[in-house]
Structure formats: structure tokens, C-alpha cells
Amino acid sequence: MSDTRSPGPPRAWRLILLVGESRAERRALAVQLRRAGYDVIEAADADGAIDLCRARAPEIVISDWMAPGRAGLDLCRRFRALPSERYGYFILLTSRHDKADVAEGLGAGADDFLTKPVSGAELLARLSAAERILRVEESLRMANTQLKETLARLRDKEAALERDLREAHRLQQGLVRERNGQFGSFNLSLLMRPAGHVGGDLVGFFPVDRRRVGFFALDVSGHGVAAALLSARLAALLSGEPEHNIAMRSSDLPGGEPRSPAEILRHLNGLMLSELRTDSYFTMVYADLEIASGRVRLVQAGHPHPVLQRANGRIELIGQGGFPVGVFPNAEFEEISVQLDPGDRLFISSDGLIDSENARGEPLGDDGLQAILRTNAVLRGNALLESICWSAANYSGGVRSDDISAVLVEHLGRSGWLGSAVPDLLQ
């Protein structure tokens, strides 16, 4: 047996406002609407309709085109101007059929039209279309509300994360306890500039014994928190008390016996592969400076070439590259010996410096770094490091995608670096 029941009331409760001069026409429509499950309120003119809209916020308005007081088009415009959190559907009742009239009604904000005299079946069909529109609007409004709430929660979490990262930045900068050190006639200066709040670069120095000082620069693969955590772990291995420093081997001597640079890199490589068990690796330069003689023994492990600038301005690139730490189980690390004489300086930086790119995508490279060192030949210590950073930033237009760190070792000598360098540079 077929189902001849009416569609029944709408699934969502709706309030309809009827506006028109004829009370009989309003009542006839109201009866049909109430039978269809709608709640109905009535107004005889536009001013009364606007008052009801403010007080009751109907979801659907059905108005006669020629409503008294103000025309139906004017009412539609006033209805659209009312502040509301939800959409109101507006239907105009008209006996007009001209296309220009329809266009005028749509321009005023009407959603649909009903031709008088109104057919009950057509009325319900138009309301069914209105129902679909209103349900879509409600769904979008709910989704928008949920999105706003989610964005608010995300902003709160982002603010908390920002606070944590700022604190992490402060703590990571604290890993470099001293930015400058004086050892006999040698001056050591350090620079650490993460691209974000935290990074994977690390630099440092420490006295090995009364005769030697160790210094290093390393760059953990990747960026962000993971790289920063590994660099913090490495900082603990390369600083602090001698008995906890990986640069020292346990022995009967006070503080232990110093390891050679190559031995330190082999030990770190083994730790990375056997104990830390991480997918990360790092590049590094570790060096041992003999203070009295100026002799430096260093190992380059995948890090950019150390740059040796002699007192006469001549520049040499040190090392052959080498293997990164934590990649190959049986990697060998070549030890290199360099002599620093009065007026010489050794500069070690991460690849964030030489990889700085200009607007054409061209990296600064070793040649660009050498040009910067020659240009800033008269500067020393932190002033030189800051000037190098400024020059790199100027080259890249202020865009920096990688951490920058550096170690500067200067042999001041009796007369100081400037006394021997300037004459040759001015020739």
C-alpha cells in the first residue's frame, strides 16, 4: 500500500513572519504554514515587521511586494541590514512577472518569489527549498563556530609553545657559558645564531690543561627541537668538569689524560652509533691549541673548511672535508696540524654562513666568506663576528634559513693583530 501521508513538519523548528496588508490573505497562508509544522507570526506593515524581526528573529519572512508603509523591496533591504548571527530567508509575494522586477527583487536581497494567488503546493515546495538553504547555512555556521573554537585553542597552545621555545632558546644560549676567552696571547670568540628559537649548532672552548685549550664547532643535521636536544647532549660531553668531558681519558693524572682530536671524534662516532641511536648525525671541527707554541691539531668531520687568515692577509682553507659523525661505523678521522703565528687567525663556521643565498639563489660560498674576511681585516673578536653576520645578512637580503655559528681564534702576539695585518692589506 502506498504512503499518502504529508511530508510532515520540518526537521528543524522554524519561525515564519508573514507581512501583508490583507488580514484574510495572511490568515489563509498562516493556516497552511501551521499545518506544515511551522510557527507563524504576522505583521500588517513593514515597520511592525521590523520590530518583530528585532524581537523574535524569524528565520523566514514572506512579504507582499506592495506591503503598506514601505514597499516589500524596502522591507527586504531593511531586513538584510539587521544584525544577525544567522541567515534569514526572504520570499516576496507578487503578481509581477517582468524580468526587470525579478532582478530588482534579487538586488534588494530576496531569495525567492511566489506568484499570487499562492498555491499551497507551490508554497510548501518553496519552503522546502528554503529549508535546504537554511540547513546548509546552519551546518556552515556550526562548522565555523567549531573552527573558531579550534583556532582559539590552537592560539593558546601556540602561545604556550612560543613561551617554551623562548625559554629553550635562553637555555640553549646558556650552553655556551663563555663567549670570549683569553689564553696567553690567544683570544677566542664564539658566535651562535639559531635560525629559529632553537637550533642544532654548538660552539665552545675549554682548558684541556695548563698548556692547551680545546675548542670546537658542530652542526647537528636537521633543525628545531630534535637537533637542539642532541646538541645539548653533546654540550654535556664537551664541557663541565674534566672527569665528565669526553676530551679527557681516565688516568692517574689529575683531571685525566687528554685525548687527541682524532680519538675524540672516533669516540663520539661510536657513541652516536651505539648509545644515542638516533637518525641524526652531525658535522664537527675539533681542535687542540698548544698555547706556548701556537700549534693547532684539528680534525674536520664533514664541517665547512676552517679558514686560516695569515697576518699578511693571505687566506688558506684547511682540511679535506672528512666524514660526518654518526654515519659510518668505522670512519677514520684525519688529524691536521696548523701553526698559528702572531697576527694569524683561524675562523671556523657552520654551513649556515656560506650557504646564505642572494636573490638569484647564489650561495655566499667560500669565496664570499674570504672576501668578507679581507674586507674586515682590521676588526677583531666579537666585532669581527658581528660584521661577518651583518655582511651575510646583507648578501641574503635578511633571509636566513639555517643556524649560524662560529669560532674565532686570534694570535694577538706582542704587537697585536692589527700591527702586522694592516700594512700588507693596504698595499
UniProtKB/TrEMBL annotation:
E.C. designation(s): 3.1.3.16
Gene source species: Paracoccus broussonetiae subsp. drimophilus
Name of the protein described by the UniProt record: PP2C family protein-serine/threonine phosphatase
The keyword Coiled coil appears for this protein: yes
Coiled coil as UniProt keyword: yes
Any coiled-coil regions, as ranges: 137-171
Modified residues (4-aspartylphosphate): 64
Short name of any one Pfam family annotated for the protein: Response_reg
Domain (Response regulatory): residue spans on this chain: 15-131
MF annotations from Gene Ontology: protein serine/threonine phosphatase activity
EC category: hydrolase
Keywords from the named record: Coiled coil, Hydrolase, Phosphoprotein
